[in-house]
């Protein structure tokens, strides 16, 4: 198997991954997954597609993560891994789609408008 590369995005986070056959090592920005994401919840989110397809010990994944915060990065990485698993095994599409791992979450931060303190918040109205 050659190296499969895919991309995943969430909010302002971008995950570029390279999947090759191996022993299940996930390296994020030249650090171990457990070191990069100390939270067990975020580790679980990242590994969800691999656990669903039961291939945790089959592939080595090298990740370049950029932008966003921890949860956005974890979800961007989950999308990238799901897309890579789809390239490797197109039959797994129905499982991944049913779990909702192939949907790119389109929600982005709304821009701040001029004359307002935030995107939707207004300054206090004074009648007099």
Explained architecture:
With 128 residues, this protein is of the alpha+beta class. It has a single domain, classed as Ribosomal Protein S5, domain 2, CATH 3.30.230. 34% of the residues lie in helices and 23% in strands. Strands 1-2-5-3-4 form a five-stranded mixed β-sheet. A hairpin with a 2-residue loop joins β3 (26-28) and β4.
Summarize the entry for a quick read.
By secondary structure, the protein is an alpha+beta fold. The chain has helices at 33-36, 40-53, 70-88, 93-99; strands at 4-10, 13-21, 26-28, 31-32, 59-66. It has a five-stranded mixed sheet.
What top-tier CATH class fits best? Alpha Beta
Strand order of the largest sheet: 1-2-5-3-4
Structural class: alpha+beta
Q: What's the end-to-end separation, in Å?
A: 73 Å
CATH topology, which one? Ribosomal Protein S5, domain 2
Radius of gyration: 18 Å
- Count of domains: 1
**Fraction of residues in helices?**
25-40%
Beta-strand portion reads 15-25%
Mean pLDDT: 94
Largest sheet data: 5 strands, mixed
Given the structure, what is the number of helices? 4
Low-pLDDT stretches are none
Describe the secondary-structure layout.
Blueprint: E1 4-10, E2 13-21, E3 26-28, E4 31-32, H1 33-36, H2 40-53, E5 59-66, H3 70-88, H4 93-99
Parallel strand pairs: 3-5
Antiparallel strand pairs: 1-2, 2-5, 3-4
Helix pairs in contact: 2-3
